[in-house]
Write a structure and sequence with these properties.
Blueprint (H helix, E strand, L loop, with lengths): L2 E3 L5 H11 L4 E3 L8 E4 L12 E4 L17 E3 L6 H17 L1 H9 L15 E5 L3 H12 L3 E5 L10 E3 L4 H7 L2 E4 L13 H4 L7 E4 L8 H10 L4 E4 L16 E3 L9 H19 L24
Parallel strand pairs: 1-2, 1-3, 3-4, 4-5, 6-7, 6-9, 7-8, 9-10, 10-11, 11-12
Length: 307
């Protein structure tokens, strides 16, 4: 079998591919040829030939138009490749906000020495919506900080969630959590999952962290929620129609520019290792990991796709 890589790739990532898949089995950009497997980063990829497997570099696939891919082509995501980085980023946001780091830094830099009360994560309840790689890694960190964890997801269980349920447990999570982490994939069923009805159930000083996709939260409902509840916070690495930031200037909203997955070489090296290893599994006749369920998929034409 041959693997086609139709985009420019740094030599260090090519080296990973050669070591895992074998240099004789890879067609590198700008070369073209007939291949059985295609590696993709976005929605811009060859559609003039049929592939047996399409492997994404990204964890999500909502930026890829799957309707243009033949039904018998297997599509595999790179879910889990960025879990460590995203989970760390989620807690960086929670700790920064709870300890008011940016506020203190700005004040002391301007010559104002004014201590204020801060907030503990210890003893608080973290609700995790979506218990895949990011959610489970976040639960591990939360337990090390002395937090109670409520999680909703499907199928995946470990010892770090004090309470684990399917989506039927979402209302309990919303009402009991001091911090809520959104780490669920964007699908037809999760589009607009958090809206007015759900936000009315959360604590007035709740901190909501979104490291998934903006469309899981209904924008107008969220903006009204943060305006109405000044003690609440919305900390997010994603924004509607990013990189544009309309309606984002609220004191209790903190935004980072879709970098939770990490832009460093060490993160991307791990993601390419996982992607190439999944390609190798398929080439060896094994079932690839992270097969995308087309019936649940959702396509949004994004200017910025993230991971």
């Amino acid at each position: 079998m041959k693997l086609l890589v139709p985009f420019e790739l740094e030599e260090r990532y090519k080296k990973i591919g050669r070591e895992i898949v074998g240099s004789e089995n890879i067609i590198w950009f700008p070369d073209k040829g007939i291949a059985d497997v295609l590696l993709v980063r976005g929605n811009d990829f060859p559609r003039d030939q049929k592939f047996k497997l399409i492997q994404t570099v990204s964890a999500g696939t909502d930026h890829i138009d799957l309707s243009s891919i033949p039904e018998d082509t297997v599509i595999a995501s790179n879910a889990g490749a960025y879990s460590v980085s995203v989970a760390e980023h989620a807690f960086a946001l929670m700790l920064e906000r709870s300890k008011k780091i940016s506020i203190f830094e700005a004040e002391t830099r301007s010559g104002v020495y004014k201590p204020k009360s801060t907030r503990l994560l210890y003893g608080k309840t973290l609700g995790i919506i979506g218990y895949g790689g990011i959610g489970s890694r976040s639960a591990l960190i939360a337990k090390s900080l002395g937090m109670r964890v409520i999680a909703v997801g499907r199928g995946y269980r470990d010892g770090n969630a004090d309470v684990f349920t399917g989506m039927e447990g979402l209302d309990r999570l919303l009402t009991e959590s001091d911090f809520i982490l959104i780490s669920i994939p964007l699908t037809e069923s999760t589009l607009g999952l958090i809206g007015k009805e759900q936000l009315e159930k959360v604590k007035r000083n709740c901190t909501i962290v979104n490291v998934a996709r903006p469309e899981i939260v209904r924008k107008e409902s969220l903006l009204k929620f943060v305006d109405r509840n000044r003690e609440a916070s919305y900390l997010t690495d994603v924004w509607w129609e990013e990189p544009r930031l309309e309606d984002s200037k609220h004191e209790n909203i903190v935004i980072t520019p879709h970098i939770a997955g990490g832009l460093s070489g060490e993160v991307m090296e791990f993601s390419y290792v996982q992607a190439f290893e999944n390609v190798k599994r398929f080439m060896e006749g094994l079932k690839p990991n992270n097969i995308v369920k087309r019936g649940e998929s959702l396509y949004l034409n994004r200017e910025k796709i993230g991971i």
